[in-house]
Amino acid sequence: MTQQVEKSKEQAVVSLLKKVLSWNIHVLDPQEDKLTKVPIKFDSVADYVNTFEPLLLEECRAQILRSLEQEESKDSVPPIATRVRYLGDVDDFFVVGLSVSDESIVQYFHENDLLLLSVEHPQRIFGFDDEEEKQGAEAIDNTAEAQAEGVDKSSDKKKQREKAKDMLKNPQKYIHLIGSVEGGEAGGIRVKFYTKNKDKDERVRNMSKLLYYDRDWWILKMCNLSTLQREYTALHVTAGLPLLKSIAEGATGHKDEESINEISNPLRSAFSAMYNSSQLDALQLALSANKIALIQGPPGTGKTHVIIGIMSVLLHAKAKIAQDKLVVKTKSSPSPMSSADKLAAWCKAQPWMHGEECIRDDLSLVNPAYELFMEQKRRSIKLLPNEPEPVKVKNHKRILLCAPSNGAVDEIVLRIIKDGGGLLNGDGVRYKPSIVRVGPGAHKDVSEVTLDQLAKMKMNLSTGGANPAAAGFHHMTRALPLDMNGAKSAVLTECSIVATTLSFSGSALLTKVPYFDYVIIDEAAQAVETSTLIPLQHKAKGLVLVGDPKQLPATIISPVAVRYGYDQSLFERLMTNHSQVCMLRTQYRMHPTIRQFPSDHFYEGLLEDSASVRTDRNQPYHETPCFGPYVFYDVRPSHEAQSSSGSVFNSDE
Length: 653
Fold this sequence. Notes:
Elements: H1 9-20, H2 45-69, E1 80-82, E2 84-90, E3 93-99, H3 103-106, E4 113-118, H4 122-127, H5 130-147, H6 158-166, E5 176-185, E6 188-193, H7 202-210, E7 217-224, H8 226-237, H9 242-249, E8 261-262, H10 265-274, H11 277-287, E9 292-296, H12 303-316, E10 318-319, H13 339-349, H14 368-381, E11 399-403, H15 406-417, E12 423-424, E13 430-431, E14 435-437, H16 451-463, H17 468-477, H18 484-494, E15 497-501, H19 508-511, E16 518-521, H20 529-533, E17 542-547, H21 559-563, H22 570-576, E18 581-583, E19 586-587, H23 592-602, E20 608-609, H24 611-616, E21 641-642, E22 648-649
Parallel strand pairs: 9-17, 9-18, 11-15, 11-16, 14-15, 16-17, 19-20
Antiparallel strand pairs: 1-7, 2-3, 3-6, 4-5, 4-7, 5-6, 8-10, 12-13, 21-22
Helix pairs in contact: 1-8, 2-8, 11-12, 12-15, 14-17, 16-18
């Protein structure tokens, strides 16, 4: 039977949780019989989904096992003794409230954290052999007693505990369940388990019963499932989108004949003065009607500069009507007006010229509160990075800007907003667009355009701030002030550019945004293909991938998944399939001597030096052999050490 690959977001989340929460920690071995090598192109969208889903689950398995191996690290949350506070069925899942005696520990648990719930201490399950278990059992029991202080242990429930102990007398003594944290609450956390699977084994059946008894439990925080959950969801949600068909086929040349774009002559002239030839080729590729554009940016070639130019192009390009579709309509000339008709129209338009009263002269109709409010609003709007005239266009285009890391996102945002703005409008004039930085981890330098900051300003405008006259105007017009959620929705809807990480582009906050015309992904070669799919859920008609497969690859935990090609980015796969790629060739960073090696060994000798590099990078001391443009020093004997922060260093170096 053919598996349904297209699912709604809710269906995809439920499907993933059912699979992961059913796993047995003791038998988390790679299921290589279900894995398929990622090909250069796929036969169908169903083939695409069915290839990547098992690999994504394999990566999830590896992340869980690694978290168990690192359980003793200083940054991990130690196992915690707990009790069941309440439990109940919610849809297909079993929701359990677990008590945490130390309130400060609750903050370490976040939504979508995977945790292990077990009868025995996790060290007994994973950390000891038989001899070590005898030595460590007493210490573990003492820890349990200390952590469980304050937890109700009334003697009238001893019979229930004795009955629970009898259920543990089976070959699977170390029974457990994997749960997903739904959130924290006063005195504990709320966790979701899956115990209704048809093929559940004795372990699950026993745990389902034991949860009803008054007894002690251990919980251990493992990895967070948020990113993997968003990747899994995107894999299934995008299965029904036309863009995924092009991605699965490994093709970038599918053209939309109805949308041939062009930019204005002033903007084109401004670009010619600001960009070199290969950068202009990249802008032209993004402007073309191709669904997917690939732009390769070796080190120092102005990749961020090009991304800003691409945004200017996409926001201000206009559709060019093909000549064979141009229909010229002739207008019939209006009948001429008589002198009397002209005079009547003139008198009606300018009554004050003929001694008649005009309603505009009636000062009693002027509302001072309204005038004050509008004046304050005009002044406040200047503080927001809104597009000035003539930037506003009839069709509001929107771009979703993403990158794998917060640092990469903030670097582009900072370049956009600093020094009066980094984009060019249709007249080739520099301006600051309406942009919002969404998600946690934003750098302080871009705080002025974070979602929280812009939402607060939006709320202030909607309530008239502290101006009582403006507040009176709102009362008079029955306008309702925005709350924070409403203000955030308004900002997300109105901004031309929304910037966030690949993972956060799949958050619930952004899934409510109506649409995006284009998705631009920086450092695209550093993301696994399933991560690249996350922002595509917003049904964009165009995708621009900017990156360099010759630099850092995506980070994958599972060596098994790597063997099957899961670490390959979408950029690299499309590039391997001979899709059109525009490579930026002129570098502005390295001394020519340093540039020579990577150019010859990674870029087929195509990298060129800019005029500034050829002159500015030469220094007099380069003539001394030990102070040349680059020098290798062999420092030995020496050894590496690890600092308290975890960084590796060599003191001799």
